[in-house]
Amino acid sequence: MNLSNDTDISRPSTSASANLGIVNSTSNNNGNNSNIKTPSNDFVRKLFGILERCEYPDIVRWTEKGESFVVLDTGKFTTQILPNHFKHSNFASFVRQLNKYDFHKVKKSPEERQNSQYGELSWEFRHPYFTIHNEEALDNIKRKTTVQKKIMLDDSTVLLKPNSGSQPGMEEKAGANLILGNAVTKDKFNLLKRRVDRLQKDLDSAKEESYNAKLEFQKLNSKYNTVVESLFTFKTVNDNLMNNFNILCSVLNNRGIDLPPHIYEDPSLKQNPGTHQQAQAQAQVAAAAATQATNSTSNSTTAIARCKTRLLTRLIML
């Protein structure tokens, strides 16, 4: 009996000393931790190192001002950078990780995206402490903490609050039961994940194909406009030639030269006044030249006849 009492009395002293030791060690740890500077997450530093070393300038790099970084080619970023540095190949997961560290995607209008020097399919991200050559500021980038966790089931929302209510732990148990009741197996989750990855790749390839198709359409549209302009020019020249031909035929017909009526049309229906006057003047000049040539020919014939008469008269006199 005495031994049991002694043992009962000695136990509180042991627990008290242990508690004192725990308190002292905790206070010492707190004092030491206050002087230790916690580094940023490896994810942020890895991304910063890739950008600083400029390992993939054609895929990802700093912008000109150095206040943000831009992913130029999401396809190559997914296949070359993510597996080698981040141990996965899902661009959507990379974006979600950036969001957890309070990175924001730079929003641009369709016109700005089309005229962007980094390409229409580029992704630009920004954080106030994530800038070029500023490694010390990375310590200010911390993972966002969630105050409340939400579980969405159908149209209802369950909030998990660890320290609320008069019965602690009830809401956590209810939330855990809801999660377990609607959880999926690991194989099904992996299958869904592969489907999402495949859909993301298909979406990226579809965006690229759409961009290439847009470029081809612009080229074809330019060629089409060139052909249409050439056709209009050819039609104008052809109309002018036909109208000039019709005017010439009309003038010749008026001069008494018989022409088949089906080879020309009435020029007054299609010819402009200025062009008609010019063609008529040219026809008059041609007619005058023809008349002059005819007169000169008749004069030559008369002179020859006179010479023949004189020769015959002299022969008779001899």
UniProtKB/TrEMBL annotation:
Q: Does the keyword Nucleus apply?
A: yes
The secretion signal range is: none
One GO molecular-function annotation for this sequence?
Answer: sequence-specific DNA binding
Is Membrane one of the keywords?
A: no
Question: Which compartments is it annotated to reside in?
Answer: Nucleus
Q: Which ranges of the sequence are coiled-coil?
A: 182-216
Q: A GO CC term?
A: nucleus
Biased composition range(s): Low complexity: 24-38
Q: Where is this region: Disordered?
A: 1-38
Q: Which UniProt keywords apply?
A: Coiled coil, DNA-binding, Nucleus, Phosphoprotein, Transcription, Transcription regulation, Two-component regulatory system
State what this protein does: Transcription factor that is part of a SLN1-YPD1-SKN7 two-component regulatory system, which controls gene expression in response to changes in the osmolarity of the extracellular environment. Under low osmotic conditions, phosphorylated and activated by the phosphorelay intermediate protein YPD1. Also activated in response to oxidative stress, independent on the two-component regulatory system. Regulates heat shock genes in response to oxidative stress and genes involved in cell wall integrity in response to osmotic changes.
Task: Kindly provide the name given to this protein in its UniProt entry.
Answer: Transcription factor SKN7
- From which organism does this entry originate? Zygosaccharomyces rouxii
